[in-house]
Amino acid sequence: QFEKMIEEGGFLEYANVYGNYYGTPLGKIEERREAGQDILLEIDTQGALNVMKRCPDGLFIFLLPPSLPELERRIRGRGSETEESLARRLGSAEKEIEIGRNYTFVVINDTVRQAVKRIQAIMVAEHCRRDKEDMINEVLEQ
Question: pTM value?
């Protein structure tokens, strides 16, 4: 079914990551964009690069670990990886971090609370930037 959706163009982005397919269904995204809603996607760098091509006006926020040793500690702490998959993930971490240079913003994911506050601040600032002409015109028209 996933491959059929790929053939039909049913994804905003999709990727095969570490042997597993992941994707963002396009229908729900289009509905929310048309309604003027913010859309927050939690996707890997491969998927994000694809979205950047399709949505160049998007706001892209890269979550950066505080350090590579901390990234390893967090992944090990989940207990979800084999040594082989852990080595593969850590081996690609520097490359993925380099891809972060393509994003609009970078947020260090030191604590969840701080990272969320920073992302919220970025989103508020972006709304102010994008809406400034409408806001100025509204005041001038009064």
Answer: 0.81
